[in-house]
């Protein structure tokens, strides 16, 4: 490299599309994610208070189109909008979990995709994100979220384990609850969100004026 020259810094999402457009797109994707949170359903191997939804879909698309920081911001705004609209029935434990576990999917996926924007790196990013989401979800539920949820509602942990046992006989303790309910739940959610993102991203990225996957 010649003296006096500098390597250009990679453009962030804000620098690429402008601050106003960036914030509009974050707000729009967060609003769509908030609406998608309203449509949820249980899975047969997990207690009914674990409801799967597709709210991470617009968040992941935003992370791909505008960068991982935008994905984290969209996730945060989504959670805040849902609190404003619907309040909380989990003493904020569910919202905190949604934020952390959602970010564990979209941020790593966004980081990997931003390094080289191809279909292959998008797939790799989503696989890594899905695995991390399952691992982070299991760890946080075991050591933070489920104990906090039980404490907030004055329930013994055994009661939560019993709810798991009612739908899955393999669940006999908090570790097995996380292994056989929480981890599969997040794996299923990550795979579903990733597949739909792969199908839709190229089209939606044009609307967002992001880069299309190769």
Count up the helices. 8
Q: Give the beta-strand count.
A: 2
What is the helix content? over 70%
Structural class: mainly alpha
Shape: globular
Membrane topology: Multi-pass membrane protein
Protein name: Riboflavin transporter
Function: Probably a riboflavin-binding protein that interacts with the energy-coupling factor (ECF) ABC-transporter complex.
Subcellular location: Cell membrane
Briefly say what this structure is:
The chain is mainly alpha-helical. It has helices at 13-17, 19-36, 56-66, 68-86, 93-115, 119-152, 157-167, 174-208, and strands at 41-42, 51-52. 73% of the residues lie in helices and 2% in strands.
SSE layout:
Layout lengths: L12 H5 L1 H18 L4 E2 L8 E2 L3 H11 L1 H19 L6 H23 L3 H34 L4 H11 L6 H35 L6
Antiparallel strand pairs: 1-2
Helix pairs in contact: 2-3, 2-4, 3-4, 3-5, 3-8, 4-5, 5-6, 6-8
Name a few traits of the molecule.
214 residues, mainly alpha, 2 strands, disordered N terminus, disordered C terminus
What does this structure look like?
The chain has 214 residues and is mainly α. 73% of the residues lie in helices and 2% in strands. The chain has 8 helices and 2 strands. It has helices at residues 13-17, 19-36, 56-66, 68-86, 93-115, 119-152, 157-167, 174-208, and strands at 41-42, 51-52. Strands 1-2 form a two-stranded antiparallel sheet. The relative contact order is 0.14. The model is unreliable at 1-8 and 210-214 (pLDDT under 50). Keywords: Cell membrane, Membrane, Transmembrane, Transmembrane helix, Transport.
